[in-house]
Amino acid sequence: MSLENQSKLKKMLASLRGQAIATSHWLLELGISPQLVRRYIQSGWLESIGQGAFKILNDKIQWYLISKSA
Fold first, then answer.
1. Domains, in order of start, for the chain
2. Which DSSP category does 9 fall into?
3. Which of 3, 4, 26, 40 suits a disulfide with 46, CB 3.0-4.6 Å?
4. Model confidence pLDDT, tens digit, residues 50-66
5. pTM for the whole thing?
């Protein structure tokens, strides 16, 4: 893996700590191409959790429902 890709990976991992979800759009803003996302999935760094949504492998994501008060 190139130094540039390692830097992108470190930045992504630091940003996602705390059980966050990454979108394809956000990853592109970090400079992480769809091809690099696939490589991160194959290498065990990321896991797809739906179309265009990813999380760090083995992270437990908690979903919260926020309702509007009437």
1. 3-56 (1.10.10)
2. H
3. 40
4. 999 999 888 887 777 67
5. 0.72
